[in-house]
Amino acid sequence: MAIKAVLFDIDGTLMDSNDYHVAAWQAVFKRIGASFDDQVVHDQIGKGTDMLVPTLLPDTDETEQENMGEEHGRIFKSKYLNQVKPFAAARDLLIKVKDSGRQVVLASSASSEELEYYIGLMDAGEIVDVSTTSDDVERTKPAPDIFATALKKLSPLDASQVIVVGDTPYDIEAAARCGIAAVGVRSGKFSDATLRGAGAVALYDDVAALLADFEHSPLNG
C-alpha cells in the first residue's frame, strides 16, 4: 500500500539534542554517585526514563527511576533546552511530506512540554497533523506504545500505510513491533550496523539527505 503518513522521532532525528541528553543524564548519575562512560549513556539515548534507567542501574526501584527522570528533565530544560537546534532541512522535510499529501506525525519519547517547544522552534504548528509523547503511554521506546498510539490516532490507516524516521535502534525496534517499516538517520550517532541490525529499511546521513532523495526514498512509496 502507498505511504499515507510519516512518523518522525524528534531527538537526534529532527533536533540535534542527543549530546545534551547525555550531559543531563551524566549530571543525574553524578549526583547519586554512579559513573558511566559517555558512550555507554549515549547508547541508551532514544529510550525514556522507564527503559534507560533500569538498563544502566537495574537495582533502582520505580520511585527512584521516576525521581531520576524528573531530575533529568529539570537539568535538561534549565541547562540545555535553549541550546538545541533543529537539524538542517528538518522543517523543509516536514513540509515536503505534507505537500506530498501525506500526514506528518511526531512520535517521541520526549515530554509533551519538550514537544511543544520543538514544534515552536521549527514553526511547525501548521504542518504537524498528529503527535504522541512519553506522556501518552505507559512504556517508551523500544516498547511499541508510542508508535502504536500514533497509529490509533491515524485510524483507519494501518501499519503498511505509514513509515517511521528515527535515529536510534529503539525507534526501529519499536516500529517493527507495530509492523511498521523504519528509515534510519545517522545524525543520532549510532552505527550503520546497529541501525541495520535493528531492521532499518534504508539509511541516510540526516534529514537533509533524506529530503534530497525524497522522490526515491521509502517515504515516497
Q: Could you describe the 3D structure shown?
A:
This protein has 221 residues and is an alpha/beta fold. The chain folds into 2 domains: 5-16 and 85-220, HAD superfamily/HAD-like (Rossmann fold, 3-Layer(aba) Sandwich); 18-83, DNA polymerase, domain 1 (Orthogonal Bundle). The chain contains 10 helices and 6 strands, in the order E-H-H-H-H-H-E-H-E-H-E-H-E-H-E-H. It has a 6-stranded parallel β-sheet with strand order 3-2-1-4-5-6. Strand 2 (103-107), helix 6 (112-121) and strand 3 (130-132) form a beta-alpha-beta unit. Helix 1 packs across helix 4. The longest helix is centred in the N-terminal third of the chain and has 19 residues, at 62-80. The protein starts with a strand and ends in a 9-residue tail after the last helix.
Reading the helices and strands in chain order gives EHHHHHEHEHEHEHEH
Basic shape: globular
Number of domains: 2
Outline the low-pLDDT stretches. none
Strand order of the largest sheet: 3-2-1-4-5-6
Please specify the SSE layout and strand pairing.
Blueprint (H helix, E strand, L loop, with lengths): L4 E4 L9 H14 L6 H5 L6 H8 L5 H19 L9 H10 L3 E5 L4 H10 L8 E3 L12 H9 L8 E5 L2 H8 L4 E5 L6 H7 L3 E3 L2 H6 L9
Parallel strand pairs: 1-2, 1-4, 2-3, 4-5, 5-6
Helix pairs in contact: 1-4, 3-4, 8-9
